[in-house]
Amino acid sequence: MKRLAAVVALLGLATATAACSGGATNKSGSGGGGGLFTTIDVNRPGLEPSAPANPYNPKGNSFLGYNAMKLAWVKNDLTDPNKFYPGIAASWDIAPDNSSVTIHLQPNGKWSDGKPVTAEDVKLSIGIAYTQGSTAFAITPGAAGAAADVQVVDDHTVKVTQDMTNPSMKFARGVLDTFVAPAHVWNSVLPADFWDKLKASRATGADAEKAREEITALGEKIIAFAPPKDTSAGPFTLERVNPSEALLVKNKNFFNAANVAPDQVKFLNYTGNEQIWNYLIGGKLDHAGFTAAPTNVMDRIKQAPGAQTIKGFSPVSVGLAFNQSKKPYDNVHVRKGLAYLIDRDQVTKVASPEGGTAAVTTSGIHQKPAQEWLGAELSALEPYKHDVAKAETEFKAAGLQKKDGKWALADGSPWKFSMHAPAGFSDWISAQENIKSQLATAGVDAEVVTTADYPLYLEELAAGKYDAGFWLLALGPAPYDIYQRLFGASNGWTNVAGKIAHAAPGKGGNWMGGPEEIDVAGVGKVNPGELTGKLNASTAEQAKPIMVELAKAANENLPLIQLWDYVNTQFVNTSRFTGWPEAEADVLRLPAGVWMQLGMVKKKQ
Amino acid sequence: MSTVILESAGTASTMRRNFWRGVWRVMLRKPSRLVGAVIVLGFAFMGVFGPMFYPDLLPHNADNIYAPMSGEHWFGTDGQGRDVVALVVTGSRYVLLSALVTAIITVVLGTSIGLFSGFKRGRWDTVLMRLTDMKLTIPGLPLLLVLSTVWKFGSAVEMGLLLGLLGWGGVARAVRSQTLSLRERGFIEAARGLGLSTTHIVGKELLPSMAPYIAMNMLIAVTGAVYAQVGLFFLGVLPYEANNWGVMLNLAVFGGGAMTTTAALPYMLAPLLAILLLTLGIVLVVDAMDEIFNPRLREE
Fold first, then answer.
1. Which residues contact A95 (CB under 8 A, 6 or more apart)?
2. Do residues A370 and A415 share a domain?
3. Is residue A251 part of a domain?
4. Which of A195, A334, A569, B281 is the most exposed place for a label (fewest CB within 10 A)?
5. Where a domain ends, among A182, A204, A224?
């Protein structure tokens, strides 16, 4: 559960998207207030005292929003990927055709050592982003939404231009969602001829290939880089780390320091969810991000003095995805039959009572943005309500046989529906155990099989080893991001240099093995992969009709059964601090460090 | 000649009768031993026949998850609303069968290698004991963790086989020491002097003297195997099977928060109690066996 929480939280953050022009920094409210703010980093179980204060290092003691800063903070709006809160950038101008982003840095932005944050810092950070495989700063030739040029306009302005041969709506997001590191500390990590190398890498041929390899190789060096001291442009700076906690102190040079309440922030170490539960029950934490908890534990947490939970939207859903290369899952009637047999309310109740809402249907979109994207069309989709009789009809249509109350394959051989989940994801396992019981009651023999860990699970899933497995979907808000989970590489469609290619089932990462064209009632035959590809360059208005077609295709063809949509549940304690975000606020999808930079969190008087 | 045979057969049956009478006396002297025997027999019964009392698919109820202890559910229900006692009973077969397989393999391998090594001595002894040393230096748990990534342990026999193959070292060493000590005793010398075959000496003279020791080792190996596999399932490195005692512990602690709140506590306690009872039963039976086979301990 712990690892799943981390994955969900990471995906939630990673899928957030880009901006129009900047919002003003919140300068309201009385400044400071002092005090110690205690929290945990849900993305990182186990503190690593020897790790450097390096935001690129996965184990690094650089905490997003606290001492690790990005150009801007993506809002994860329901439909608009171009909305941000200011970070290192105070504002930004995005060209109407998405061809460029001009970034205006905070005029008072300073590093913790007192030096100003300049356009050179941003340029170096963009150089580093190239080595780390960023979307806007990709070195893959023809990648969608890649930058063509980075231009330092003046000390506080940088202009980044998009390569318009394969444009993406997400270009601005790719640019603004970039870490910023201090050039005066980090300049040794990139060689003097880096920008020439980058230019060379954009061509074709052996030299370009060599340049790309050299740039990628720099990535490792950057991950290992250990600055002698944490130099942060964020509201806090790392003071010390030991195996039980990391202590950060307020950065007096932070541009909005007057509105940052706590003097110190303490990150407590944990290795499992149950430790976080105990911290919360003991009232030790002022804030904790999404942590899965059973109802009884949640009730205890709520009883702690000052404890409060704030719920909001999280652009993540989970579904039971089929490998259609395997029989009988190639038959849509079998998939539909299974969808009718699974009572999603019951599954959610057992598996994720506090962190999820049963999916209203399979649309491929989280139910909240689904309303915005599909409007009235959402209610026109088949809801797949629990209905044993309909399931029976579907199974019969698929040619399955019922013998002694048990469903068998068309040729009479026994059928066992095998579901896979990674070990440790206890809510997924719990859900599958419930599905197993539900199916068995209706005469479908089923089993739950676990895989040692999540990376191995994804590897085996991609290798087509499973009949069915749980799969995260609806990773919005960008429409392309939402549907590429259903009609992207895992289902055969790859988007290289703006051209969509389809690989046969079992080849090129296509483990879902769905049909290349789907006959959608009222629309006709559609190629969902190509439609998804179109979303990359579409405006919200252009995207809407495509989203409707794709939702219908997903609902009709069921490459997976959407089970529940995650709810972003944040834990806060009002005993020491106030000014927490409201329920459903978009900042809930950002780290609490960002809430502090925006001047929201106040010391309780 | 036939009279002699009849006489010896009669003597054997008398001895057997005396032996069982002795066993009964030992059992009665400390009633706790009788309790131990009942517990062990109870677990054996549960492993063999227990699952037959329940349907293949245990009834679940999503509206009654982590239910408290009650007359209907003695140890409450799990996170799916299934009866915890039913899970313990149906899960006992895998645990006990694999423990039995482990014990048999440990004892058979350990005894044969130890006996052969101690009796033959010389080069065979050196080679086999170095092998045993090597095996003893392999840390069991890390090896199991690595193996679990490539081997799925779908069946109890596979699990038992692996734990057995990892566990014979200690028994082999102990049996070898016993053999080395016994082979110098007078009765073995006499047997050799009579020109009896090695098979006879090992099978009829040496082995019976060590039988109680081996039997006790076997019972202790059962508890060791239960701890090892339950531990592995608890850590979540082995495939998921809802009614496995280790998986139950894992789900109770990490899914149900049994260490944090009381709701899932009975769910955690049930498999723990089963393990505790099984260990207790075995310890008590071993205590009885010790006295049955060791005349010096008989308080007559």
1. A101
2. yes
3. yes
4. A195
5. A224
Q: Which one-letter DSSP state was computed for residue A28? A: -
Q: What was the pLDDT predicted at B3? A: 44
Give per-residue pLDDT as tens, A49-77. 999 999 999 889 999 999 999 999 999 88
Residue A4 lies in a domain: no
Whether A255 and A374 share a structural domain: no
Helices (H), chain B: 2-29, 31-49, 84-120, 122-137, 140-150, 156-182, 186-193, 198-200, 207-235, 245-250, 265-293
Stated pTM of the model = 0.83
Buried b (16+ CB within 10 A) or exposed e, B151-184: eebeebeebbbbbbebbbbbbbbbbbebbeebbe
Record: contact A450-B236, CB cut-off 8 A? yes
Give the residue-averaged pLDDT of A32-47.
86
Q: What is the greatest pairwise CA distance in chain A?
A: 79
Nearest by CB: A277 against B236, B240, B260: B260
The contacts of residue B137 (CB under 8 Å, 6+ apart) are none
Asked if residue A259 lies in contact with residue B238, where contact means CB atoms within 8 angstroms, the answer is no
pLDDT in tens, A291-333: 888 888 999 999 999 999 999 998 899 999 999 999 899 999 9
User: Rounded to whole angstroms, what are the CA distances from B244 to B75, B87, B271?
Assistant: 16, 8, 9
> What is the ipTM score, two decimals?
0.79
Q: Do A500 and A528 lie in a common domain?
A: yes
Q: Do B255 and A294 touch (CB under 8 A)?
A: yes
- Listed residues A224, A254, A273: the one ending a domain: A224
User: Quick one: A345 and A288 in the same domain?
Assistant: no
CB A112 within 8 A of CB A122: no
Q: Are A526 and A455 contained in the same domain? A: yes
* Smallest Cα distance from A442 to chain B, Å: 11
Q: What is the pLDDT along chain B (300 residues), one digit of tens a residue?
A: 444 444 455 666 776 777 788 788 878 888 888 999 999 999 999 999 999 999 988 899 989 989 999 999 999 999 999 999 999 999 999 999 999 999 999 999 999 999 999 988 889 899 999 999 998 888 878 888 888 777 777 788 888 998 898 888 888 998 999 899 888 888 888 988 898 888 888 888 888 888 888 888 888 888 888 998 888 888 877 777 778 899 899 889 888 888 888 889 999 999 999 999 999 999 898 888 877 777 666 554
A113 in the same domain as A212: yes
Which residues face B60 on adjacent strands?
A: none
Q: Which domain holds residue A284?
A: 18-67+234-306+574-603
pLDDT band, residue A573 (cuts 50/70/90): very high
Our count of domains for chain A comes to: 3
Query: Is the Cβ–Cβ distance between A22 and A90 less than 8 Å?
Result: yes
Q: Is A447 helix (H, G, I), strand (E, B) or coil?
A: strand
Mutation target vs A (from B235, B241, B249, B260; most A CBs, 10 A cutoff): B260
Task: Report the C-alpha gap between A521 and A419 in whole angstroms.
Answer: 30
Compute φ and ψ for A93, nearest 5 degrees: -120, 125
B147 — contact with chain A (CB < 8 Å)?
Answer: no
B window 29-48, beta carbon within 8 A of A = none
Q: Are A535 and A476 in a shared domain? A: yes
Structural domain includes residue A13? no
Q: Which chain B residues are closer than 8 Å to A278 by Cβ?
A: 260
Residue A402 CB partners (closer than 8 Å, separation 6+): A392, A395, A408, A443
Same domain, A265 and A404: no
Helix (H, G, I), strand (E, B) or coil at A465: coil
pLDDT at B298: 56
Q: Is A416 on the interface with B (CB under 8 A)?
A: no
Question: CA–CA separation, A292 vs A289, rounded Å?
Answer: 10
Are A452 and B148 a contacting pair at CB < 8 A? yes
Residue A121 corresponds to which tokens in the numbers above?
């810092």
CATH of the domain at A157: 3.90.76.10
